[in-house]
User: What shape does this take?
Amino acid sequence: MQPTRRAAVVGAAALGLAGAAATPARRIVSLNPCLDAILLAVAAPRQIAALSHYSREPGNSSIGDLARQFPFTYESAEEVIALSPDLVLASRHSSLATRNALKRLGVKVEVFSTPDNVPDSLAQVRRVADLAGQPGLGRREIARIEAALTAAAPAPGARPVRALVFQRNGFSSGPDTLMDELLRRTGFRNAALDYGAKRTTDLSLDVVVADPPDILLSGEALPGAPTWGERVMRHPALERLKGRVQIVSFPQHLMFCGGPNLVEAAERLAKARRLVA
Assistant: This one.
């Protein structure tokens, strides 16, 4: 009987721990603009204690107006602790000192990587929704993203269009990146691969001029600080490319963030493809 009784106690304890782990977070702080957008989509407003300051900055977020309705932090441990969160969403690029300090103080910190593909991005949406105790909102958001990707897909047999995503500081996405997959899903061939790009890198103007893409997806200007892409496009060397290269605005935050941003990215890419076609 003793082993049976012990097993029952252990089992009950395990169930208790599982129940504690499944308790929805009541006050959530996000330290990353990509996670900010996911959190807004899959959590109740009352659960959001604060977002990152990045989401209020022009050019860094697609949720600027909505983000201004919530408190924000500059990612310091002191600011976060003052908000009394029971969950903090962070990326692997978030301040390590802040993450370590929060863990020492017993605050749960969930760390997310930058997604390299659409399935990984959808998994992050599902995970944040589960942590917030809102799996239904997570499923709804995933369905919305999948519908947008389906609507943006090219007609069967359509010839891929060579496109280059060219952002501030000359950044472009190579193979095995979320942006590369989005280009392929929406009917493009990523010209960065032709230029030898490895993941996210900066490209020289020379290679673009020597072998121009069909379409250049350029970053948008920040107030008082033109993007590198814009400076490059004003370069005299590109004058002779006019009429051969279609230039389309493509905000930089769509290059790195998945989640809800995939909807806007897919719509913009589909529209750009139609312009070339």
About this structure: DSSP finds 13 helices and eleven strands in the chain. Confidence is low (pLDDT under 50) at residues 1-21. The two ends are 76 Å apart (CA to CA).
